[in-house]
Design a protein that fits this description.
The protein is of the alpha/beta class. Helices cover 39% and strands 18% of the residues. The protein contains eleven helices and eleven strands. It is globular, with a radius of gyration of 19 Å.
């Protein structure tokens, strides 16, 4: 039975040791789909408060948000401190619990290129200065990256492992409009192409179970994402949490979440379509607390992984 080529496989082969991603949440970052630049309210599945709740947000930064047009950042020193505190705490746990030896700093929550260039440069360089850090992974949106930032990341990539993670979600504009994404699929393709032209590593996030999408549509999204040249992929089922527009749709009966059976079918077929060189970073997602409304199968990750491996076993693969 063949093991799927995972991101962990890729990193251990490249660096010869255990490399872990350290997820970082920096206060003051937001999203053009929340602040009104692209849209208001965020994507329909996004519970905006959930990001800041887990960051131990520095009190002085509440209500302060950066964007591409910000002319100053009076809280940069505090953001740099926050970055260091989070990295030290998480990397220590990863060393003790999992034997981690090297680290990728993962700028995770919100849109981590959506700030003035000098702020980004300071944060990225601070992250790369920490002991045993071999690179960065930067989560963002395709409508929130500049040519200047891509050029800078390409420079860094000459000596460090640099990844940029784009939320692709779907290649169908009607779906992107339905979820209030704030940009079209042409924009995603354009900026993935620009990142690849600069030699950057790209991870694409795909969501299965978006409103009104058939299995055929979900698989077409996978197909096009692979054709655009992504180097790694994260697969997510769409689940419903409280305090979201999607929750309203679910509660009034206008949205039905994807079943586990359908998700497994699409996931397995998408993995079969995947070029072998594309690593897999995630095969599912969920949340096990009272904010989850549906589907209930997204509550237990261990059971999800067992069921995914059972489905993969039928095609002689394992995760």
């Amino acid at each position: 039975m063949e093991q799927i080529y995972t991101y962990g496989n890729y990193l251990s082969k490249k660096f010869g040791c255990k490399v872990y991603k350290v997820g970082i949440n920096i206060s003051g970052f937001t999203c053009p789909n929340i602040d009104g630049t692209a849209a208001y309210g965020g994507c329909t599945f996004c519970e905006n408060d959930s990001f800041s709740a887990s960051t131990n947000q520095i009190q002085e930064l509440k209500g302060f948000h950066l964007n591409l047009h910000s002319t100053e950042n009076p809280f940069l020193t505090k953001q740099l401190q926050q970055l260091e505190i989070q990295f030290n705490a998480i990397s220590k746990r990863q060393k003790e619990a999992y034997g981690a030896q090297k680290f990728i700093v993962y700028f995770q929550s919100f849109t981590n290129t959506y700030a003035p260039f000098e702020t980004l440069k300071a944060l990225y360089e601070k992250a790369l200065s920490f002991d045993d850090v071999v690179g960065l992974s930067i989560g963002t949106r395709s409508d929130s990256v500049t040519e200047e930032t891509l050029d800078y990341l390409a420079e860094l990539s000459r000596e460090k492992e640099i990844w940029i993670e784009f939320g692709i979600q779907s290649v169908y504009d009607e779906t992107l409009k339905k979820i209030n994404r704030g940009h079209d699929s042409a924009n995603i393709k354009e900026w993935i192409t620009k990142a690849k032209e600069r030699g950057l590593n790209v991870c694409g996030h795909l969501i299965f179970g978006l409103p009104n999408e058939s299995k055929k549509m979900m698989l077409e999204t996978s197909k096009q994402a692979y054709e655009w040249g992504i180097d790694s992929v994260k697969y997510h089922p769409l689940y419903v949490v409280k305090k979201t527009a999607l929750a309203n749709d679910f509660l009034n009966g206008s949205f039905t979440p994807i079943s586990e059976e359908e998700y497994l079918d699409v996931l397995v077929k998408s993995i079969q379509m995947k070029p072998k060189s594309v690593s897999v970073q995630r095969v599912t997602a969920g949340i096990d607390d009272n904010s989850l409304l549906a589907p209930n199968w997204c509550r237990d990750k261990n059971t999800q992984i067992k069921n995914i491996n059972r489905a993969l076993k039928e095609i002689d693969l394992k995760y």
